[in-house]
Amino acid sequence: MHTDGSLPVLTAKDFTTDQDVRWCPGCGDYSILAQVKKVLPTLGIPREKFVFVSGIGCSSRFPYYVETYGVHSIHGRAPAVATGIKAARPDLSVWVATGDGDGLSIGGNHLIHAIRRNVDMKILLFNNRIYGLTKGQYSPTSELGKKTKSSPFGTVDLPLNPITLSIGAEATFIARTLDADPKHMEYVIRRAAEHKGAAFMEIYQNCNVFNDGAFEYATVKDMRPDTTLYLEHGKPMIFGKNRDKGIRLNGLSPEIVQLGNGITEDDLLFHDEKMEEPTLAMMLARMRHPEFPEPMGVFRAVSHPTFDDLLTKQVDAATAKLGRGRLADLYDDGETWTVE
Questions:
Q1: Is residue 334 within 8 Å of 209, Cβ to Cβ?
Q2: Looking at the domain 12-214+305-309, which fold is it?
Q3: Domain residue spans of the chain
Q4: Contact (CB, 8 A) for 207 and 130
Q5: Which of 155, 152, 129, 126 is nearest to 142 (CA)?
Q6: Which of 27, 81, 195, 339 stands 20 to 30 A from 136 (CA)?
Q7: Sheet strand arrangement including 294-301
Q8: Residues 6+ apart with CB under 8 A from 160
């Protein structure tokens, strides 16, 4: 901080560490790292107030590559560690970097509860539909029938949908973006950073070694306009190279319609990310390629009390009533016995 109380002007370079980035050449993780480092210096938060927490996996190397405080924790437990940090230090900006294996398999329980508690943390879930660090086994998001080293005859598991999971856990901010669209990714990360509460971001990320092209339909520029639907609050759901197709509600189900011949933008669904009722967000989350264009952007952004705010108020109220207390008194309180 400067002597006049103002914060120094930060740049992406200020968030670059001296560590060699050890991801495979061409990995989508590089794109995610670049956009995070682009957003962080614009938030008006001192660098020492950021903490990045990770578990295990390629994505979990993230704390080494951002010049902030960081914790490389254990497999799947990053949301639990991040919750503890935010509870103890609510003044910090806490971020979680996790993957589809780390966050949705062994870490699924911790992820769900961090979201449902609305802990004020930003969750970057790198989804490449494969276990990359352990060399190509199928993950919780791998498509049905996927042949991998651990499923040579094809998987018989239905894939988990991270967006529907986060909706079911009542996430207050839910978004999806992809590594091949850095401008959109920057927008989503910025929106999440500005959100008060649990901000969940699914990022489609290409693993060019073990699952290359998993999201080709969404990442190839010539294909993307017809295979993705960019959500904009308050605007009709239009897509296509010529912006001539849209999503309309047919009863309780979405359908693709061609604009013209009596069908106008007013007939289409209009996106509302601020709806408390999550039915629209859930319907959008279930729209998957190839039947529908896959939605990208902010599915839901609502305001609820956060776990850390409620906890702080509770602690303050108890302290005002009972005093600060002593740990020794806690140890000696209640039933005790001596083992001889």
A1: no
A2: Rossmann fold (3.40.50)
A3: 12-214+305-309
A4: yes
A5: 129
A6: 81
A7: 69-72, 50-54, 93-99, 121-127, 199-204, 173-178, 294-301, 228-230
A8: 104, 140, 141
> How far are the Cα atoms of 116, 193, 199, 294 from residue 83, in angstroms, in the given order?
12, 16, 13, 31
Q: What's the full length of the chain, in residues?
A: 340
| DSSP secondary structure string for all residues of 85-110 | HHHH-TTSEEEEEEEHHIIIIITHHH
C-alpha pair distances (Å), 290 with each of 213, 223, 294: 15, 12, 8
DSSP label at residue 148:
B
Q: Is the Cβ–Cβ distance between 147 and 50 less than 8 Å?
A: no
| Residue 192 CB-density burial (10 A; 0-12 exposed, 13-18 middle, 19+ buried) | buried
Query: For the segment 226-266, what is each residue's pLDDT rounded down to a tens digit?
Result: 999 999 999 999 999 999 999 999 999 999 999 999 999 99
Task: Tell me the average pLDDT across 272-301.
Answer: 97
Both tokens assigned to 51 = 């903490």
What six digits make up the tokens of 190? 């910025």
The neighbouring-strand residues paired with 124 are 97, 201
Tokens found for residue 219: 């990442």
